[in-house]
Amino acid sequence: MKKSLVSLIIALFFTQAILAQDIAVNGATVAPTPALVNGTVTLNFNFINQSTIPVTITAEPTRVTVNLQKMIPITDGGGAVPVTGTFATYFTWAYDAQSATLIGTQNQTIPGSTFEDPSGGSIIFQAIVTEASAQNAGATGHGINVNIVPGSNIVGNSTTNDAVSVYGYTNGVLPVAFGSVEAAFVGSQLKVDWQTLSEKNNKEFSVNASHNGTDFHQIATVATQATDGNSDAELKYSFSTSWKELAKLSGFSLLTASVLVLLMAMLYPAARKKIYLTTPLLAIVIAVVLFSCRKKDSVDTSETPTLYIRIGQTDIDGTVRYSKVVTVVKK
To answer: Is residue 299 over pLDDT 50?
Structure first.
């Protein structure tokens, strides 16, 4: 009888061990550190199903709660928080402003891990730092505390690794807190929309475009809506132009410019020596090269080009700062 009881206890123990699940969060980071008040930080953490048992969806699915401290998440034009990362799509994300909490609700089965292939991945979003944080402040700094609320189908989940925190500190203040920045080709128009969460001593904005994401050129200026350049309210801005006209503004390529410089260098000695027969000939050559290069290097406006946009912000004292760079999408 005793042997049977012992065997039953051992069997129950191993059954529970096999059925036990272990979903966890770890690896939280905040960057940059130090940050700037009104500046953007990127927050990253990992969600992992460390057991072999998949996490299916039930009436009470698993949730991830991300409590934000001294920060607010950056939203898109529709008010949603863009969350990226290799495991972000396993959850539907919503922000509760009252509790300052980003909540991810499981929306599909989370696969179980194998010995060779742990199941999990990164979850990433961006936020604006709203208050100063002292160095070495720890939990009183700006950052996040991430917790897991296991669903009703979770059996024996470990509670030792279902929470993770990260905090940073600040070193300075930006005069403008940028919210979302979006750019799209809509029909024949390039449309750029951005928002500010607060402004201080702001003069104006500039819209900057680039074909490679590195070399930017100003294409427009937009006056601030803030009275005397100061506002604590959310303000929305918009700019649009014909993208085909914008593409033509790119003008000649570097090759064309180089050829023109070379030909002008050839033309200069001839002009100084008053070799009038040579001068018209070189002028004709320049015109031919100019036409052929422009034809070759001109922008094909039959299709939308690859384009990058950033918003410049100019202080009343003339200091210029820039938003994040976004890729123009086609709608």
So the answer is: no
